[in-house]
């Protein structure tokens, strides 16, 4: 069971976890043991509040399918138990990130001092560029 908030809880029976064989190099251990974890979580069929469901479905994350199913494959560790924990942590962080309410940006005006510094820098830069011009020879 994953507890997100007091009102948002994911029960273990809503998460489908299957063991599969891991890909890639690893010798004989990879070939005979199913240590990788394939986690599936159906957003629409879950008991999450509607706010969470709508935010997750609108997130457009690469782990969320068109049908609204989160698919996570965990195979970083050699142990099935560690991969299961990793997959559950990734599911929790995905849900927390998608439902985090972002602070709205309020436009601010630049201060008088910052305007003056900007204008001083501009005039210094223009003076520097004027000095880069062609050097003229003075008649003797």
Summary keywords:
140 residues, alpha+beta, Double Stranded RNA Binding Domain, 3-stranded antiparallel β-sheet, two-stranded antiparallel ribbon, 4 helices, 5 strands, 39% helix, elongated, hydrolase, translation release factor activity, Pep_chain_release_fac_I_sf, Pep_chain_release_fac_I
List the helices and strands and how they pair.
Layout: E1 2-3, E2 9-10, E3 15-20, H1 28-32, E4 36-42, H2 50-59, E5 69-74, H3 80-98, H4 112-131
Antiparallel strand pairs: 1-2, 3-4, 4-5
Task: Explain how this protein is built.
The protein is α+β, with helices and mostly antiparallel strands and 140 residues long. It has a domain at 2-98: Double Stranded RNA Binding Domain. Helices cover 39% and strands 16% of the residues. The protein is built from 4 helices and 5 strands. The model has no long low-confidence stretch (mean pLDDT 89).
């Amino acid at each position: 069971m994953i507890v997100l908030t007091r009102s948002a809880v994911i029960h273990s029976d809503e998460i489908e976890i299957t063991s599969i064989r891991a890909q890639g190099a690893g010798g004989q251990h990879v070939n005979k043991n199913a240590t990788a974890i394939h986690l599936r979580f159906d957003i629409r069929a879950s008991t999450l509040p509607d706010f969470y469901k709508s935010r997750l479905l609108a997130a457009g994350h690469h782990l969320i399918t068109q049908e609204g199913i989160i698919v996570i494959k965990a195979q970083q560790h050699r142990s099935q138990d560690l991969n299961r924990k990793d997959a559950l942590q990734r599911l929790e962080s995905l849900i927390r990130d998608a439902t985090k309410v972002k602070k709205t940006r309020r436009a601010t005006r630049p201060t008088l001092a910052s305007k003056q510094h900007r204008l001083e820098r501009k005039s210094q830069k223009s003076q520097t560029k004027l000095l880069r011009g062609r050097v003229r020879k003075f008649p003797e």
